[in-house]
Amino acid sequence: MTWVAEYADLAATILRRTPPLPVRLVAVDGPGGSGKSTFAERLAAALECAPVVHTDDFASHDQSIDWWPLMEEGVLRPLAEGRPARFRPYDWVSRRRTSWVEVPPAPVVLIEGVSSARAAGRDRLTYSVWLQTDRPERLRRGLERDGEGMAGFWADWMAAEDVFYAADPTVDAVDLVADGDPRVPHDPEREFVVIRA
């Protein structure tokens, strides 16, 4: 059974929780093409412009999953100490890391992307969300965004995700599972569809 919920209510739930760190870290996880970025943007707006850190800024063509030490060093450790996060995002076109970006230790910081709620960082999260979307739809979205010439890349990327999530079944550990491709009538700017909470 699914039901419709409001981003404003989710934001209020997150703000009521006592965080394990000086900031409330909220992960929006799920495989590529599941709708994480859109969900994170709308939740960030409901949280009055909470900053969003994207795992795509840490991953690269050569490291689809094994980039976590960069997240620890650049984001989790400094925010845990009340300092700004600081990292060099990966540019997927030029295939190199760009200039430094800083993210302030705001009341809530969203971490959006594949494996953002992984076991290695789960104890520091205030809240976690998983976006559930069927594989064919995820692939369709990915190729629509990146082009049909990236079909081989997407096949490899999805295979790496499968291996990772088989070893770390994140969907079983999150606070909320939302439908990344809902058929239920709702206002997508204000609402989302819950599969499990």
Key descriptive features of the protein:
single chain, 197 residues, alpha/beta, Rossmann fold, 11 strands, 23% strand, globular
How would you briefly describe this protein structure?
The chain is built from five helices and eleven strands; from the N terminus they run E-H-E-H-E-H-E-E-E-E-E-E-H-H-E-E.
Can you tell me about this structure?
By secondary structure, this protein is of the alpha/beta class. The chain has a domain at 3-48 and 107-196: Rossmann fold. The chain has five helices and eleven strands; from the N terminus they run βαβαβαββββββααββ. A seven-stranded mixed sheet has the order 1-11-10-9-2-8-3, covered by helices on one side. A two-stranded antiparallel ribbon has the order 4-7. It has a two-stranded antiparallel ribbon with strand order 5-6. Helix 1 (7-16) packs across helix 2 (36-46). The model has no long low-confidence stretch (mean pLDDT 96).
**Structural class designation:** alpha/beta
Number of helical regions = 5
- The general outline is globular
| Cα end-to-end separation | 11 Å
Poorly predicted segments: none
Major sheet summary line: 7 strands, mixed
Percent of sequence in beta strands: 15-25%
CATH architecture annotation of one domain: 3-Layer(aba) Sandwich
In helices, the fraction of residues equals 25-40%
Order of H and E elements: EHEHEHEEEEEEHHEE
| Number of DSSP-assigned strands | 11
- Highest-level CATH class of one domain: Alpha Beta
From the alpha-carbon coordinates, what is the Rg to the nearest angstrom?
Answer: 16 Å
Q: Mean pLDDT score, rounded?
A: 96
